[in-house]
Amino acid sequence: xxEDGGDRxxxxxxELSANPEQHPKSSSWLPxxxxxxxxxxxxxxxxxxxxxxxxxxxxxxxxxxxxxxxxPVAAVILLFPCTDxxxxxxxxxxxxxxxxxxxxxxxxxxxxxxxxxQVASFGNACGSIACVHALSNVDLxxxxxLAQFKETTARLSTARERGNILVASDIQGLSDMSxxxxxxxxxxxxxGDTYLGHHYCAFVSVNDHIVELDGTKVAPVDHxxxxxxxxxxxxxxxxxxNGWMQVEPDRIDFSMVALAKTR
Length: 263
Fold this sequence. Notes:
Layout: H1 8-18, H2 36-47, E1 53-58, H3 63-66, E2 73-81, H4 84-103, H5 108-112, H6 126-136, H7 144-153, H8 159-168, H9 171-179, E3 198-206, E4 209-213, E5 221-225, H10 232-245, E6 255-261
Antiparallel strand pairs: 1-6, 2-3, 2-6, 3-4, 4-5
């Protein structure tokens, strides 16, 4: 149960670490490693991602490094460490988001995206959910199981309802296939393994606003309008540096993958 003022990510982390036996392997998702080929494999399986689009590594967060990433970029996925400082920052942000949600004051951009809730019974599903968030909220031709999921959940009003439908779909099986794919650079942990200490979230552009999608947050986060002289990748890097990396300036285990048009 999520406590008032607490951070759902921390609660999921603590629950999985303390009681892994309470989450049967049949319901836990295999974790996707931070590997763009693995995300691309998953995206092609669940949404028939067009062949000219793929996930690629972003080599750094400064403008010079960002120039090496092909454009356009449709979505960005961030991997970040789960630390006390980041949990504390998230808990403060949650108070604001909860007020906006309760009062109906989410921005039009935040209201318009598809947002799925992640719960502890999913296990290490955050990479899969970040990919679902990215693909579900971009202007690309997406078909297959993900298109069916979007159609099924179109009339649902809460992220939790959509999360329940996600579990009942074919997407978990396809995610586990991708996690075990030959492109993996490390041995895939077992579904019964405890929480891995990092988390994924996604960023997309909606009505020229940059929106963060995280299954462990109570609502999407509208980070405001994008600058007229920058693009999604540059804006995502700016938001990440301000909201994550400045919170943990001594940590180097932040990484981005971008959904980019590569041919």
